[in-house]
Amino acid sequence: MRALVWNCRGAGSPLTIPQLKELVQVHSPSLIFLSETKKKKSFINCVKQWVKFDELFVVDPVGIAGGLAVIWKKDIQVKSILFTSFTIELLIGDHRGGRDWWCVCVYASTDDKIREQQWRVLERRTQVWGECWALMGDLNDITSNGEKWGGRIRPASSFESFNGFINRTALIDLGFVGVPWTWCNNWNKEGEIKERIDRVLGTRQWCGNFGKARVTHVETEASDHCALVLDLTPVETPRKRRFTFDRRWIMQEGVGEVVQEAWEMDQQGSRLYKVQRKIRQVRMNLLNWSKKLNLNSKKQIKQIKKEIQEVKGSQGGEGRAKITGLKRKLVEAYRREEVFWSQKARIKWLQEGDKNTSFFHASVMSRRNRIGLMDLKEEVGSGARMRRRLGRKL
């Protein structure tokens, strides 16, 4: 199962529906939770048809404020639905293991006092949900100043209510993939504030049942909130090869410009996040740039040798000059090959450490044997010279 959780800030906005269709097409969710829809059931029913889903449940807004909607496909077994003014609670049957769980979709108030009362309501409702449930949505609060970028620093006491709710219900934050914030006021630079106020929390039993569950933050243009994509059974992607800086790149013209261009690209976020993004951009640009280069020294050596033999076999008068030029290229190719293998040996030693000690011991013993043999030859040679001198004197 894959769920899309999004505070769309008005389902009737001209950009909301096209972006929702795009999110559905890209992430293929089977359940969608929309908060702050500002639209009644008749309109949300049209939204359901536009995204080609089968079922829906709606909590109408009060006037033009609020509004919740859950839309899902028929392959999800919804056994029961409960709701309040700020929640939609679905009892979902698990076809595989037969373990039912509650999907609690929440849109918390922006008012601190009301939100504190809502935490108390949710605590009481845990008696209905049991031990296996997950809470997701716009919770309109953060756990610390580490989840806030820009604006005034909040006092530690302002986090007690939300953290107290999390601790009393023993919820576990699933974390995220993507940008660290989920909401931005979209102001320019100095006045810009970003916070992680949308999240997914699960009980210990729920996290045990869905140990591989993953949450991804997806930036959107239609709303000032990111969309959350909750994937309960993410497909394991092949592990990417570790990035290694190829020392042969230094020998190529233009490498400095590639690094400079990547580093100067504008990145958004905290200082540390910007640095991380810049480093990642440099890696990507270097890899893309290197693909256009022919850095396979072994193939180059083979090709140059072939060209030298062809020139030698020809009867042209400029053969010697061509061979000289090709030999220069061959020297450069050998030098690059040496750099490549010296770096590879260093990497292997760093990775395997003591696993290579036998090789290094063998190398040292071999060197010592060579030195000993040279000393013996020197000693034998000096003895022979001494006997010859004595023979001449006698």
From TrEMBL:
It comes from the Eukaryota. Transmembrane segments: none annotated. Pfam families: Exo_endo_phos. Gene3D superfamilies: Endonuclease/exonuclease/phosphatase. Residues 5-225 form the Endonuclease/exonuclease/phosphatase domain. This is Endonuclease/exonuclease/phosphatase domain-containing protein. The lineage of its organism: Eukaryota, Viridiplantae, Streptophyta, Embryophyta, Tracheophyta.
